[in-house]
Amino acid sequence: MALRNKPTVALVTTQFWEQGNFVAEARGMPELPRVQLPHPVAGTGSDAMGELARRLAPQIIARLQGIETPAAA
Amino acid sequence: MSETSRLLEAENEAAALELLHANGCTDGLPVIIPTPARVERMALASGVDAELSLGSMGPGGGAATIEAIATNAVMAGCRPDDMPIVVAALTAMLDPAFDLGEMQGTTHATAPLIIVNGPMAHACGVACGFGALGPGHRANASIGRAVRLCMINIGMARPGQSDMALLGHGGKFTFCMAEDEASSPWEPLHTTHGYAVNDSAVTVIGAEPPHSVIFQNDADDPTSPDRLLKTLGATLANLGSNNAHFRIGMQTVVLNPEHAQVLADAQMSRADVQAKICEYAVNPTERIRELNPAFARSKTDVSHAVRRPEDVLVLVGGGSGLYSHVMPSWAAGAHSNVAVHAPIITDQACEIPGLSPST
User: Fold this and answer.
1) Closest Cβ–Cβ partner in A18, A23, A42 for B59
2) Quick check: is B340 in a domain?
3) Count of domains forming chain B
C-alpha cells in the first residue's frame, strides 16, 4: 500500500518490532510509519483488544496524518 | 572479486572461521573458508558470468550474483560439479511465485525442499534412498546447505530478527534429495513440469519436516491400496497443520518404493494417487471449530486440507519398508506455497564426464 502511495501505518507487536524495522529498511521504506503493539494481541479476548484499539486509535490516526508519535506499546 | 562483494581479511583460516561466525555468516557449523581462488573456481563451474545476478533475495533484498552464490557454495562444502544444481535451486526459488522473502520471515516451521531429477542427480551422487534427508550424503548435505547459506547471507535471514521461525526446523540446515527414478513406477517428477526424461531439473517446495506415515500392506486384502491412501490423507490433514485450517497450498508426499508399488499394482497413476489423497485429506469442520474456532472457515461439514489434486506433490524416495512421509506446508504467502522448478544447466562449463559439452 505504501508503495502505491496510499496512507499507510504498520501495526507491529513488540516481538516483531526488529523484523518490521528490517523489512522496512530492506524495502526502501525506512520512514514507513509504524505503531508498536504489545505482544500478543491475537487471542487476548475482545475486551482487551477493544481497549487496545481505543488506546492506540489516536496514535494511528496521528501517524496517518504525518504526525510523529512515540512508538512504545 | 566483484564490486558488490566484500573481502574479509584474517591471519589464517582458523581466524577467518571465527570472523565468519562472529559476522553471522554461518549456520553455526564450521564452513570452508571462501578464499578468492576457491570462489572463482566454484563460479567458473556454473558456466555463467560471476557478475550475473539471478535476482534479489528476500527479505533483505541482496543480489544473488553467481559470485555470491559460489561463495556460499564453497562455505557449504560443495564441489564445483554441484554448483549447477545450487544455481538451479536458487533460480527456482527466486521465482516470485515462491514468495521466498515472506517464507524466510514466517513464524512457521517451513524450509525449501530441493528435489533433484535427471542425470545430474546420479552424476553428483544426490541420494534418493535410505536416509536421503538425513546425514551421510555429501551432495545432499552440501547442496542444501549452500542454498541455506545463500538464504542467510544474501537474503539476510537471521533467527529472531528476520527469520522469525518460532522453533526452526532441522531442514533449515540442509533439505535436498533426489527422486528415486529407478524404483518409481511412474514418470520422473520433473517430466510432470514439461522436462524430458534426460533433462536434469530441480523442483523446490516449502515443506515442514517429514511426518512419518506407517503402513503395512496386505496383498490378500483388496482394500489395502485404499487404506494406504487414506492413511496418507489423514496424516496430511492432521489437525495441527496449517493446511487443515487454511485449506490451501501444496503439500509433499514421499512414497517409499514399496508403498509406491502397492499403488502401482492397483493400476494407479501418479494423478490417480494425487486425486485420492486430496479426497481423503479431510476433517469434520465441527472438529476444527471445536479445537481452533478462529480458523473454522469452511461452510461445509467437511474441510479439505488440500484444495485440488495437483496440490499434492508426489515423489518416490527413501528406503523400502513400513514408512512413507508427508510434509504439510506453510499454506500462506501471496501464492500459498507452490512448487517451483528450474532446469539444471549442464552445457556451459559442467565438468562431469558424460555430461560436459566436451565429452
Assistant:
1) A23
2) no
3) 2
Give per-residue pLDDT as tens, B270-329.
999 999 999 999 999 999 999 998 888 778 899 999 999 999 999 999 999 999 999 999
Mark whether B52 and B157 lie in a shared domain.
yes
As beta bridge partners, residue B302 has: B284
For residue A14, the enclosing domain spans 2-64
Residues 6+ apart with CB under 8 A from B63: B4, B53, B55, B56, B57, B154
**Looking at the domain assignment, is residue A72 inside a domain?**
no
Q: Which residues pair with B254 in a beta bridge?
A: B315, B325
Strand pairing of A10-13 and A34-37? parallel
**B233 in the same domain as B124:** no
CA distance A57 to chain B (A): 24
Mean pLDDT of chain B: 95
At residue B325, the 3 state secondary structure works out as: strand
Q: Do B105 and A19 touch (CB under 8 A)?
A: yes
| pLDDT surpassing 70 at residue B1 | no
DSSP calls for B281-323: -EEEHHHHHHH-GGG---SSSEEESSSSGGGEEEEE-S-SSSE
- pLDDT reported for residue B156: 97
Q: Which residues of A touch B294 (CB under 8 A)?
A: 42-43
User: Which cell goes with B253?
Assistant: 508426499
Q: Does B60 touch chain A (CB under 8 A)?
A: yes
Q: Note whether B104 and B218 are same-domain residues.
A: no
Q: Label residue B359 by pLDDT band (50, 70, 90).
A: very low
In a shared domain, residues B16 and B161:
yes
Among residues B75, B108, B114, B92, which one has the least CA distance to residue B100?
B92
Query: Per the CB < 8 Å rule, is B164 touching A16?
Result: yes
Query: Is B59 buried (19+), middle (13-18) or exposed (0-12) by CB count in 10 A?
Result: buried
- Within 8 A of A39 by CB-CB distance, chain B residues are none
Contact B260, B183 (CB under 8 A): yes
Residue B211 dihedral angles phi and psi, to the nearest 5°: -105, 125
Q: What is the pLDDT of residue B45?
A: 94
Q: Nearest 5°: phi and psi at B286?
A: -60, -35
Q: What whole-number distance in Å separates Cα of residue B149 and Cα of residue B25?
A: 8
Kindly state whether residue B312 falls inside one of the protein's structural domains: yes
Instruction: Check the CA dihedral B61-B63-B69-B74 and report its sign.
Output: negative
- Could you read off the pLDDT of B217-236 as tens digits, one per residue? 999 999 999 999 999 999 99
Cell of A71: 512508538
